[in-house]
Amino acid sequence: MEPVRANRSAVTLHSVWDRPDAVRVLPVIGALLPRHAPALVAAFADAGVRAVEITLRDPQALAALRAAAQADAGVAVGAGTVCNPGQMEAALDAGATFAVSPGFDSALTRHAIAIGVPYLPGVATASEVMAARELGLRLLKFFPAEAMGGVATLRALAGPFPDVAFIPTGGVGAANLRGYLQLPTVRAVGGSWLVSAEELAAGDFSAVAGRVTAARGA
Fold first, then answer.
1. Greater model confidence, 23 or 1
2. Is it true that the peptide bond before 144 is cis, omega within 30 degrees of 0?
3. Quick one: average pLDDT of 123-145?
4. Whether the Cβ atoms of residue 172 and residue 141 lie closer than 8 Å to each other
């Protein structure tokens, strides 16, 4: 049977967080069991989250991504830790509507543009921002955010690149997300703090709403 890919035409990452009821967070989820995926995306949807990233770091990641996408909870389901075109194609076949990478690779970025998938490559320097911008991208992942100077670095990048928006990820959590979200160039923040490893293993997502509410307060 030929894989059926999700309709990506309605997914524009620039507008995912435009809805007034949307929370400006991108949950980054790893080690998710496929049987728990529908309940997790439903919990995020109920809390106002409009997009989630499932990282391709474990053997069950594609199955979990497929289960999350098939749940059709009104949440854009993306694939994270995409490092080559093969991974991107496999994620799209599983139902991903966008892709995220930890770093910037021009060939992978060109592949994403060629096939029309919304794509967030990771950048950490002005040179990488320039390279991504040259290819037409205006929304980028800033990673690893805290290790690369966090809010101070993003403030510095805003000067030469006022037309570029960022989603900082890496060391971002409940304690420091407010500082990031106050920056005009930050579209949303990404991280794994919204659901713990223990909750992922147990399939207990009752605490998600409270954490999302706290993030909304920021």
1. 23
2. yes
3. 97
4. no
The SS3 call for residue 204 is coil
The enclosing H or E element of 53 equals strand 51-55
- Domain ranges within the chain, ordered by starting residue: 25-217
Can you tell me the distance from the alpha carbon of 23 to that of 41, in angstroms, rounded to the nearest whole number?
14
Q: What pLDDT sits at residue 5?
A: 61
Other C-beta atoms closer than 10 Å to the C-beta of 107 total: 9
CA gyration radius, the chain: 16
Q: Which residue has the tokens 């060939």?
A: 107
CA distance 50 to 185: 19
H or E element at residue 166: strand 165-168
Contact 68, 39 (CB under 8 A): no
- Between vectors from CA 169 to CA 195 and to CA 27, what angle results, nearest 5°? 30
142/123 Cα distance (integer angstroms): 5
pLDDT band at 3 (very low <50, low <70, confident <90, very high): very low
User: What residues act catalytically?
Assistant: 53, 141
**How far is it between the farthest Cα atoms of the chain?**
50
Q: Please give the Cα distance from 26 to 141 (Å, whole number).
A: 11
User: From the centroid of its chain, how far is CA 152?
Assistant: 22
Options 3.40.50.10860, 3.30.1300.10, 3.20.20.70, 3.40.225.10; CATH for 25-217 is 3.20.20.70
Q: Could you give the CA distance from residue 86 to residue 164 in angstroms, rounded to a whole number?
A: 28
